[in-house]
Design goal:
The complex is a heterodimer of chains A (274) and B (248).
Chain A: E1 5-14, E2 17-27, E3 32-36, H1 43-51, E4 58-63, E5 66-67, H2 73-76, E6 80-83, H3 96-106, H4 111-124, H5 140-153, E7 158-162, H6 170-185, E8 189-193, H7 197-203, E9 206-211, E10 214-220, H8 221-226, H9 228-231, H10 240-248, H11 257-269
Parallel strand pairs in A: 3-8, 3-9, 6-7, 7-8
Antiparallel strand pairs in A: 1-2, 1-4, 4-5, 9-10
Helix pairs in contact in A: 3-4, 3-5, 4-5
Chain B: H1 8-24, H2 29-43, H3 67-90, H4 93-116, H5 119-128, H6 133-162, H7 171-202, H8 221-244
Helix pairs in contact in B: 1-2, 1-4, 1-8, 2-3, 2-4, 3-4, 5-6, 6-7
The chains are: A alpha/beta (274), B mainly alpha (248).
Chain lengths: 274, 248
């Protein structure tokens, strides 16, 4: 099976300032990957390379079987749905529905299919009630969800999201988690930049960590977040559940709230953990 | 400016006098002279790199000290180039050169001013000179908005391209694309006005209240004299151009 995304020995510099050095990793269809690291580690540069906004100095970025070096961003939009940090600033249509349908329309998708995709994206993020509103009449958090719905409506094989949960409360974050899990179940690959490790633990399954432009680790997110001592040198703070698991020395070091609750219940009942 | 930090009023005076002289002095010689001065100013190393600018040709960038200046020079030339094209379509060559040199002087001077003028220093200088803080902020915000809007425009273009919008093609396609590119910029800028106004009020920027500047920029007597001299030169040129030798 062809990977949805593959970076091969990718290096990139802004002028004389190196941003990435020989970074390699891949994301399989349906896989949910967190791209982690401190500020300036090179995460956003990876997103720009995948979206075709920059070309690697060395190495290759493959989106499916497309070399991004041969594609412009509007071509890559067929396969990559990108949502940037300030995505709410890209909204321009008179209604949320029009804005969400802009992506598939720009790609030349047929009108009936555009309607279907738009309806589905709005439903996935519980935005149907706001479909007729002007995007700028909505609070910033819902504008952010509107931008995400726009990316979902294009139905790409790979979703690349840069900090999708900033400014979202627990309810809205849960909506994002549900929508992303749903898309992932349909074989959409996810690459999510986030500093929100609670969201990452609940939603994503693998962690790729960049440190000063190099790949620091690439492993199961549960294993990474469960080992609290390894996080600090990478500039990451453990999510509260992982910190609690470590402090209580819970068996299996669960990092998701539901898993931690189950482990605590077992310990309280004195039952052995499987 | 390297090492020397001119008073914000001096920078504003230079930025006002250069374009004025470009239009007052006879073309092409006078306009060419002001353009040379303006271009030299844009090349002056030391001012900050224009936000949103990206490194281009590697050979141009091999001497780091000149990078900011080269970026500004490129910005000025690229911004002024379309004016030359339009002028050439509308006028003969001598008129194109005459107006083109003047317009390019204005563009280059503004590019230099945006890079060299620190809005915070301008506010301090204006408050120290007795201006109201709200008027000072209004002027400073205009300058500080340029790089911010430029960076935001770049982000919007990139985001829309990643949604499948092609900014290329025929004129109808470009006009359609323009809506998706310009509207978000205008809408988000307007939307920000409310938030900015609220933030300013909560920080005590209320009209009618006299403020004490925290660190007013130094304004030496020599600089003040130089500013008046520049304005005098402008006035003399104006008198000479329109009264003494009106058709030279």
């Amino acid at each position: 099976m062809i990977a949805a995304l593959r970076l091969e020995e990718v290096s990139f510099s802004y002028g004389s300032v190196p941003a990435l050095e020989r970074v390699s990793f891949s994301v399989a269809p349906g896989e949910r990957v967190a791209l982690l690291g401190r500020n300036g580690a090179g995460k956003s540069t990876v997103v720009r390379l995948i979206a075709g906004l920059q070309r690697p100095d060395e190495g290759t970025v493959w989106v499916g079987d497309w070399d991004t070096r041969d594609c412009v961003p509007e071509q890559l939009a067929w396969r990559v749905g990108s949502v940037f940090q300030h995505a709410d600033q890209q909204l321009f249509a008179r209604t949320v529905r029009d804005d969400v349908s802009f992506g598939p329309r720009a790609l030349g998708v047929g009108e009936r299919e555009v309607e279907r995709r738009t309806d589905r994206a709005l439903e996935d993020l519980d935005l149907t009630a706001h479909a007729g509103h002007h995007p700028y009449d909505l609070p910033p958090a819902l504008r952010k969800l509107t931008a995400l719905a726009g990316a979902l409506a294009s139905e790409p094989a790979l979703l690349v999201l840069d900090e999708p949960t900033i400014g979202l409360d627990r309810t809205l974050r849960a909506r994002v988690t549900r929508a992303l899990l749903d898309r992932s179940a349909g074989s959409v690959a996810l690459l999510v930049i986030t500093h929100d490790l609670t969201f990452a633990a609940e939603t994503l399954e693998r962690g790729v960590v960049l440190d000063r432009g190099s790949l620091a680790c690439d492993e199961s997110l549960a294993a990474l977040l469960g080992d609290v001592t390894r996080l600090e040198p990478l500039g990451l703070a453990p999510p509260p559940v992982a910190a609690l698991s470590a402090a209580l020395d819970l068996p299996g070091r669960p990092v998701r709230a539901a898993d931690a609750a189950a482990a605590l219940a077992r310990v309280a009942r004195g039952k052995p953990v499987p | 400016m390297t090492g020397v930090r001119l008073h914000p009023f001096t920078l504003l005076t230079i930025a006002a006098v250069l374009p004025a002289l470009a239009w007052i002095l006879p073309a092409p010689d006078g306009a060419a002279a002001t353009l040379v001065v303006a271009l030299v100013l844009t090349l002056t190393p030391g001012a900050k790199l224009t936000p949103g600018a990206s490194p281009g040709n590697a050979s141009l960038w091999s001497f780091p000290g000149w990078r900011p200046g080269l970026v500004r020079l490129r910005t000025a030339v690229v911004t002024a180039a379309p004016f030359w094209l339009f002028l050439l379509l509308l006028h003969d060559v001598p008129t194109t050169i005459a107006i083109g040199l003047r317009v390019t002087t204005m563009v280059a001077t503004f590019v230099w001013l945006v890079a060299a003028l620190d809005p915070a220093r301008l506010v301090e200088a204006m408050v120290a000179a007795g201006w109201s803080a709200s008027v000072a902020y209004l002027l400073a915000a205009t300058f500080s908005a340029v790089p911010v809007l430029k960076a935001r425009a770049q982000r919007i273009v990139e985001a829309q391209r990643c949604r499948g919008l092609s900014p290329r093609g025929g004129i109808p396609a470009r006009l359609r694309a323009l809506r998706a590119l310009a509207l978000p910029l205008v809408l988000s800028a307007l939307h920000e006005v409310d938030e900015r106004a609220l933030a300013l009020e909560t920080r005590g920027l209320v009209p009618g209240i006299r403020r004490t500047p925290l660190a007013p920029p130094p304004d030496p007597a020599a600089e003040r004299a130089a500013r008046w001299a520049l304005l005098l030169v402008c006035l003399v040129a104006l008198v000479r151009r329109f009264i003494v030798q009106p058709f030279s």
